[in-house]
Specification:
Helix content: 25-40%
Strand content: 15-25%
Number of strands: 9
CATH class of the largest domain: Alpha Beta
Number of helices: 7
CATH topology of the largest domain: Rossmann fold
Structural class: alpha/beta
Radius of gyration: 19 Å
Number of domains: 2
Largest sheet: 6 strands, mixed
Length: 204
């Protein structure tokens, strides 16, 4: 992070996007990870799902924490709470599949899964089918990112859309504005790009 702080100290225009750090004083453009987590979870609850699992990152990663906050908020709004036995924090230093497989060893299987990325979601889908579950009849799954994997998996994956193009466009416009108008002495700006959901075959 020291090299980024040096850029700021030297008063060089800088915009961080998507992956940002709260302690760096510059313009930032981010996706609404809390809102995206809420949107995914609420969609599953509206299907009538009651045992929701979450596949997330280790708790030192902000992106996973924000999406889990959205997950938790959506449950709370329905009078429910997070059951930590249904939450798997995936450490990618080890086998992703082995860690996600623990969900399918529970006495009461989840009837819905929200995954913080499409790799975790598709891995869960593969394991669910291997365990004889029908998607989406027995289990609905929503992932995050809406990339190529989501579109071409079998079944195709419902996903939260981050609007990466808009994020990049807003970042470029913000940077050009800094350069053209010499606004280096003005307070850093923070823009949040809202999330949407695309429904496909993995949900009802």
């Amino acid at each position: 992070m020291a090299h980024i702080n040096k850029i700021v100290d030297d008063e060089i225009p800088l915009v961080l996007f998507d992956r940002v750090h709260k302690n760096i004083g510059c313009d930032k453009v981010v996706g609404d990870d809390v809102g995206g987590g809420y949107l995914a979870t609420n969609s599953l609850l509206n299907e009538g799902r009651q045992r929701l699992a979450m596949l997330t990152t280790p708790d030192h990663m902000k992106i996973g924490n924000d999406r889990k906050l959205g997950f938790s908020n959506a449950l709370l709004d329905k009078g429910l709470s997070v059951d930590e036995s249904y939450v798997v924090e995936v450490d990618e230093q080890f086998s992703i599949e082995d860690q996600i497989a623990k969900i399918f060893d529970l006495e009461h299987l989840p009837d819905a899964i929200f995954a913080v990325n499409e790799v975790y979601a598709v891995t869960a889908m593969k394991l669910a089918i291997k365990n004889g579950l029908n998607i989406p009849k027995d289990l609905s799954i929503i992932g995050y990112t809406n990339g190529v994997i989501s579109k071409y998996s079998t079944p195709s994956l419902s996903s939260i859309v981050q609007h990466g193009y808009q994020m990049g466009k807003s970042s470029a416009e913000m940077l050009i504005d800094r350069i053209d108008n010499d606004k280096l002495n003005k307070a850093p700006r923070y823009e949040v790009i809202g999330a949407d959901i695309v429904k496909r075959e993995s949900t009802l």
